[in-house]
Amino acid sequence: MKLTKLVAVLLCSMSLLSGCIFVNSGGNGHLKSHEYHKQKFNNEQISLLDIGATRDEVIDLLGEPDASEATKIDESEYYVLYYITQKASSDEESIISQSTPLVFKDNLLLGWGSEILEKVKY
């Protein structure tokens, strides 16, 4: 009888312990997946933008930017909203270098990309 109880206890213990396996994938799998989907979403939404859209319309569509800049020249306000659209090639790479700039003048979208940013560089 004691042997039967001992075997039962050992079997129960083994089955409980076998469920305690933990595999650590480095913790980056979900983050990398999230980053990929964010980049893909941003690229898709930016391609749908219309020149002349308001800054609020763009933020409603894309969400808050990953970075931004603003200035006033003469009587015009310029805003640049940066949305991550590329994978970082290194950990030191800045958010801006991974992003597509969206350039606004007086809250209206002038365009996006490095060319428009250079044209209106303030």
Describe the structure.
By secondary structure, this protein is an alpha+beta fold. It has a domain at 52-122: Beta-lactamase Inhibitory Protein, Chain:B, domain 1, CATH 3.30.1450. The protein has four helices and four strands; from the N terminus they run H-H-H-E-E-E-E-H. It has helices at 2-18, 29-47, 55-62, 114-119, and strands at 67-73, 76-84, 99-105, 108-112. The chain has a four-stranded antiparallel beta sheet. The longest helix is centred in the first third of the chain and has 19 residues, at 29-47. It is globular, with a radius of gyration of 26 Å. It starts with a helix and ends with a helix. Mean pLDDT is 81; it is low at 14-26.
